[in-house]
Write a structure and sequence with these properties.
Its EC number is 2.7.1.31. The protein is α/β, with parallel strands linked by helices. The protein folds into 2 domains: about 1-40 and about 275-375, Glycerate kinase, domain 1 (Rossmann fold), CATH 3.40.50; about 50-270, Glycerate kinase, domain 2 (Alpha-Beta Complex), CATH 3.90.1510.10. It contains 12 helices and 13 strands. A 6-stranded mixed beta sheet has the order 3-4-5-6-9-10, sandwiched between helices. The radius of gyration is 22 Å and the shape is elongated.
């Protein structure tokens, strides 16, 4: 029997590789002869860099960059095993956790550090860059990112505009002739799992800015600024980012990546599955075990277990999903290639206790799953 173990991370508890290893331990506790292939997974969100570095035997590279508030922070990116592909989580440089609660202000926060990570990846020789664009503290439409790469985003005086979504109204001209020339030869994919437009009631400001510190008045201003940004991009670059699904992701970084870097926005799990050649890993596999921290009705919208299960289902390979917890509507995943699902929680307990014991609980459950599968009919 050959089993492919392909989980996402159990956030706050286990990396994807740690989860995979504990599932393998449980399987081998029952039968060490079972062939288990480990493939840590991700969907473009937190943990994507670590998962792909683990899956490809790459390396994590740390880099001091400009944080969302303009201060220096230590961020990171991943250079995968092929030495040609870099993976960036924009949150590592421009994420909400980098901003203290009392300093949250999307009128001021910048994606400049994300641009610096892209430049660092270019310095390392990357020919393909994947950018996960979740968890941002920003609402600047990726203008800071572009400035870090040499773009000139100019006001009426011909000077670079200031950091932050509050400054987008100052834009009068966009010049890309000084943009890092290496970008012309690099494929850039943005892992995006939302379909919000850049502006409007479903756009970046109205939907996401409040959690980044914006009050209702600020939300309206930020939305107006994003509209202005889009108008200038249409005029200066002959592109309309707002027509692209996901343009509003990460405070409009989705729009900025398309406008300035000609990036392509795709579902994160789709990018990852293609990158690691998932179909090849499915060859001669009898069972796939996947999972993540939470499995619920929303998992059908771009989450790792369902992305994995849909690919496996195309080859008629059964899939079992293991989760830390099961949420409302979890039964929906059964219509998307997952044959059965389980939670590692085996008794009433505090969350802290479950997190601490998650390696053991994951191994125990995996052993019981394999025991059940291997029952021979009398």
């Amino acid at each position: 029997m050959r089993i492919l173990v392909a989980p996402d991370s159990f956030k706050g508890s286990l990396t994807a590789m740690e989860a995979a290893e504990n599932i393998k331990n449980g399987i081998h506790n029952y039968d060490s002869k079972i062939d288990v292939d480990l493939l840590p997974m991700a969907d473009g969100g937190e943990g994507t860099v670590q998962s792909l570095v683990d899956a490809t035997k790459g390396e994590i590279i740390k880099k001091k960059v400009t944080g969302p508030l303009g201060n220096r922070v230590e961020a990171f990116y991943g250079l995968l095993g092929d030495k040609k592909t870099a993976v960036i989580e924009m949150a590592a440089a421009s994420g909400l956790p980098l901003v203290p609660e009392e300093k949250k202000n999307p009128s001021k926060t910048t994606t400049y550090g994300t641009g610096e990570l892209i430049a660092a990846a270019l310095d390392a020789g990357a020919q393909k860059i994947i950018i996960g664009i979740g968890g941002s503290a920003t609402n600047d439409a990726g203008v800071g990112m572009a400035q870090a790469l040499g773009a000139e985003i100019l006001d009426e005086k011909g000077e670079q505009i200031d950091f932050g979504g509050g400054s987008l109204s100052q834009i009068e001209q966009i010049k890309l002739d000084k943009l890092d020339s290496r970008l012309k030869d690099v494929e850039i994919l943005a892992a995006c799992d939302v379909d919000n437009p850049l502006y409007g009631k479903e756009g970046a400001a109205y939907v996401y800015a409040p959690q980044k510190g914006a009050n209702p008045e600020m939300v309206e201003i930020l939305d107006q600024n994003l509209r202005h940004f889009n108008d200038i991009v249409i005029k200066e670059l002959n592109k309309n980012p707002n027509e692209i699904s996901g343009a509003g992701a990460a405070g409009g970084l989705g729009a900025g990546l398309v406008a300035f870097l000609d990036a392509e926005l795709k579902a994160g799990v789709t990018i990852i599955l293609d990158l690691i050649n998932f179909e090849e890993r499915l060859k001669n596999v009898d069972l796939v075990i996947t999972g993540e921290g939470m499995l619920d009705g929303q998992s059908i919208y771009g989450k790792t277990p369902v992305g994995v299960s849909r690919s496996a289902a195309e080859k008629d390979i059964p899939v079992i999903a293991i989760a830390g917890t099961l949420g409302e509507g979890v039964e929906k995943v059964l219509d998307h290639g997952i044959n059965s699902y389980f939670s590692i929680i085996d008794r009433p307990a505090a969350l802290k206790e479950i997190i601490e014991e998650s390696p053991k609980l994951l191994a125990k459950l995996s052993e019981q799953i394999i025991r059940t599968i291997q029952i021979k009919r009398l």
